[in-house]
Design goal:
The chain has 113 residues and is mainly alpha-helical. The chain is built from five helices and no strands. InterPro entries: RVT-Znf (IPR026960).
């Protein structure tokens, strides 16, 4: 679907594709032989071929960020469940403070009224 100059052949494509698809294609660079062949590949393999083994290895090597696991003790506290949840939210910076509401564009100011 590219012409001799390496650009998208809009005349040819517009006769067979809907406008919505054409707009999506416009956001993609046309194939260019100078950049090498345009092929699909699996980035976790040197030969670019998909294997279940490479997928498993990629997923199992995922490093979980290190946390201070002391917060696990929160769940063993002898307090009401809502207090545990509140403390857990506070430890993980998940309380919906006005500063957080402002960061999420839910408030016009980060100041507490």
């Amino acid at each position: 679907m590219a012409d001799a100059t390496g650009q998208w052949d809009w005349n040819r494509m517009s006769s067979v594709l809907p406008e919505l698809v054409l707009r999506k294609i416009a956001t993609i660079r046309p194939p260019n032989n100078m950049l090498g062949s345009d092929v699909q590949g699996w980035r976790w393999e040197q030969n670019w071929c998909f294997t279940t083994k490479s997928t498993y290895e990629a997923l199992s090597n995922y490093e979980v960020p290190s946390f201070d696991f002391k917060w696990l003790n929160i769940w063993h506290l002898q307090v009401p469940q809502r207090v545990k949840v509140f403390v857990w939210l506070a430890v993980h910076d998940r309380l919906l403070t006005n500063a957080e509401r402002f960061r999420r564009h839910l408030a016009i100011s980060d100041r507490c009224t």
